[in-house]
Amino acid sequence: MKRMHLHVSVEDLSQSIGFYTHLFGAAPSVAKPDYAKWMLNDPLVNFAISQRGAKPGLDHIGVQVETEAELAEIKTRLEQAEMGILTEEGTTCCYAKSDKHWVQDPSGIAWETYRTLDSAPTFNNHDSTEKSNAACCVPAPQKVQFIARNKP
Predict the structure, then answer these.
(1) Does the pLDDT value for residue 99 go beyond 60?
(2) I need a labelling partner for 32 at 20 to 30 A (CA). Which of 17, 99, 123, 136 fits?
(3) 44-50 and 2-9 as β-strands: parallel, antiparallel, unpaired?
């Protein structure tokens, strides 16, 4: 099964959690000081928000899969589309360990295809007390989009 993933950078996490809890009719399945996530079945989406220093708005879009075979299938399709792909295996992002492939669509929007392997105690590989202004976990070759978003 595949699930759409949307990640939005927000200005006020507490206020946004309240809004999305009302919108979805459910509390987040994960709530951290800088991040919240809803794993919804109706609509079938992994919706995440974070307050990590990026300009508020769409951070990235993705497709979450359950199996290694599904992730390989999507990677093959991206290769056929002649997209530049960056693969990360066993990476830590958004309080989870995942295998993933990143691409940017022709408009420069970052797309993440990934399979979650396990939960993680930190947002990324940094100590939770360390202040990070990184826009989610977008890998270095694709930070161009996010650098542009952070400019006033």
Answers:
(1) yes
(2) 99
(3) parallel
